[in-house]
Amino acid sequence: DLKEVMKSRRKTLSISQLDLAEMAEVSLATVKDIDEAKDPSLATVNKIIEVLGMEMIFQVRQTV
């Protein structure tokens, strides 16, 4: 689950919710919502994963 990965990564990096919000230029409420498993927009996810040193890769699924 993407939200759990972001939350775990934030904790691994010892970044507070407030610090992450400021670095990603999103509201503290947005970061708290993500930690509480509410669905953020793709633009918000992109800002946050950039700060966390992560990337999102989209690719066409291979059918079997």
Describe the structure.
The chain is mainly α. Helices cover about 60% and strands about 0% of the residues. It contains 4 helices and no strands. The chain has helices at about 1-10, 15-25, 30-35, 40-50.
Condensed summary:
This protein is mainly alpha-helical and 64 residues long. It contains four helices and no strands. It is elongated.
Overall radius of gyration: 12 Å
From the helix content, strand content and strand pairing, which structural class follows? mainly alpha
Our estimate of the beta-strand percent is: under 5%
The tally of strands reads 0
SSE topology string: HHHH
Uncertain runs are: none
What does the main sheet amount to? none
Give the % helix: 55-70%
What's the helix count? 4
Task: Summarize this structure as a short list of keywords or feature phrases.
single chain, 64 residues
Task: Reconstruct the topology from this structure.
Elements (H helix, E strand, L loop, with lengths): L1 H11 L4 H8 L3 H8 L6 H10 L13
Helix pairs in contact: 2-3, 2-4
